[in-house]
Amino acid sequence: MGLRALLLPVTGHHADDVALRIAFEIAQTFESHLSALCLRPDPVDIARYVADWTAPVMTGELVAAVESEAASAAQDAGRAFEEWRVRHGLPAGPDQAHAHGVSVSWTERIGASAVILRDAARFADLVVMRGLGPSGPVDGDAMLEAVLFDAGRPILLSPAIAPSSLFEGALVAWAGGREEVRAIAAALPLLGRMKRVEIRTIGSAESAHTEELIAYLGHHGVVAKAAHMEPAGRSVSETLLSEARGMGASLLVMGGYHHSRTREAVFGGTTRQIISHVELPVLLAH
Question: Which residues, at least 6 apart from 68, have a Cβ–Cβ distance to it below 8 Å?
Answer without folding.
Answer: none
